[in-house]
Design a protein that fits this description.
3-stranded mixed β-sheet; 24% helix; Amidinotransferase; Amdntrnsf_FN0238
């Protein structure tokens, strides 16, 4: 079992889905014209999450699926932004940039995880919202668990001070860098421009403008033993960087949007398939909200109840 590719995840199925007008300013993956909420749109998003959960379960991934019936949480389909879990039994709760997203943090989700997994500490960083410091979970940080490294693209949603605090507490080495997309705009979340799996990493290196920072990211990934699949800016725009590696019954899968997989070259596909199986999933309605399949998944790295804490991963000092 790879601690980088968990076999269990959390997903949230929204009943009142709509692209969030409060996040459109810096999330250029959303359509530029606001989309009016409608029952039909919400029904399609509900069906896409349902189908995605079924596809994951069919290959042996455990999906903890929670329904959201609230009308004021337009982005609840993206739970990876408000919490993360860790192999040493920790959970972290994160400060969210948009006030419209802060009620996504749900105690019932945490309580459900405690029934099956060992949770030793919950770090609650949501108080940082009072100081205007934001860090949106594994949207802001792409975590390399074996190497204890956090890759972070600076943005309104990823503040350096919050990164330093969280990484110090959780025992990760931060690598921060600035990005820009094809339009010269900073990328709002790190996990739309890079993905780090067990043996391979997909990363839009050309979006890291500073040569020194770009070299630091490449060097760190190569030192970890990862093969690098370099993505172009057009592929980034189609969510090719927004992927996640999961473990099923028959091995490891790269969960990727059906829209994104179409942009991969034959060479890139062959490169990836040396290590794992591609699992394209169609979520065009959810993608209107500016995120894709990786954003829809909060990975569970917690030890099962009865397992030794930190089993299979180093435990940082103080845990």
């Amino acid at each position: 079992m790879s601690i980088q590719a968990p076999h269990a995840v959390v997903m949230v199925r929204p009943t009142k889905f709509t692209p969030n007008p409060a996040t459109i300013a810096d999330n250029l993956f959303q359509p530029r014209e606001p989309i009016e909420p409608s029952a039909g749109l919400a029904t399609k998003a509900y069906a896409e999450v349902t189908r995605m959960a079924e596809q994951l379960r069919e290959v042996g991934v455990t999906v903890h699926l929670f329904d959201d019936h609230e009308t004021d949480r337009p982005d609840s389909v993206f739970p990876n932004n408000w919490f993360s879990t860790h192999p040493d039994g920790r959970i972290a709760l994160y400060p969210m940039y948009s006030p419209s997203r802060r009620t996504e943090r749900r105690l019932d989700v945490l309580a459900a995880l405690r029934t099956e997994f060992r949770v030793n500490v919950v770090h609650d960083y949501s108080v940082l919202e009072d100081d205007g410091l934001f860090l949106e979970g594994t949207g802001s940080m792409v975590l390399d668990h074996p190497q204890r490294t956090a890759y972070v693209a600076r943005s309104f949603r990823s503040h350096d001070r919050a990164v330093e605090m969280v990484c110090r507490d959780l025992g990760y080495r931060p690598i921060l860098f600035s990005t820009q997309d094809l339009r010269g705009t900073p990328i709002y979340h790190t996990n739309v421009m890079m993905s780090v799996g067990t043996d391979v990493a997909l990363v839009a290196l050309e979006s890291i403008a500073d040569a020194g920072e770009r070299r630091a990211v490449r060097t760190s990934l190569e030192a970890s033993g990862r093969d690098i699949v370099a993505l172009g800016g057009a592929q980034l725009d189609e969510f090719a960087g927004n992927t996640i590696e999961l473990t099923g019954r028959a091995g490891r899968y790269l969960v990727i949007s059906a829209r994104a997989v179409k942009t991969l070259t034959a060479h890139q596909r062959r490169h990836l398939e040396r290590y794992l199986e591609l699992m394209p999933i169609s979520v065009p309605t959810v993608e209107l909200a500016g995120g894709s399949v990786r954003c829809m998944i909060a990975t569970i790295h917690l030890p099962a109840r009865g397992a030794m804490v930190g089993q299979g991963a180093p435990c940082p000092a103080g845990c």
